[in-house]
Amino acid sequence: MLGEGEFGKVISVTDKTGKVATPLAMKQLSKGFQWKDNTLYNPMSPEVLRTEVGCLRKLGGKRYNLKLEALYETPASLFIVTEMCSGGEMLDYLSEFPDGLRTEDISRISYQLLSAVDHCAKNGILHRDIKPENTMFKTKEAGAELRLIDFGCAAMDGT
To answer: What global pTM score does this model have?
Structure first.
């Protein structure tokens, strides 16, 4: 388990079809009512699910946006398989550098985040939920690439 949200959870999975096993992340979204922390949540709207998947498909994993690898559906759940971002969320990643970041690091991170937002805009997508929790890094190493994630609140042209 990598994380859990209001409508589902993110689990670490492995693609073993190639010569090298590839770590991936799988977001499981429930289509029905959710019971969590003594609260009953209404099901996610099918339109919200379509929009999130549509955004990922349209962006194609380019310019620092999360890459969609596969999509599976059952009557009860939707499984969105994406690239793995093992570097963690923005604040977790930044805490790995107790001496702070260099100007070059801040410039690189800013460029990548703005490039991701620009790519969204050029594809008619408005993310609407950009925050440190929705900004992940591919690895924990210094200089790791950023990924903009979670298009659950996004809007596309025509929606």
So the answer is: 0.90
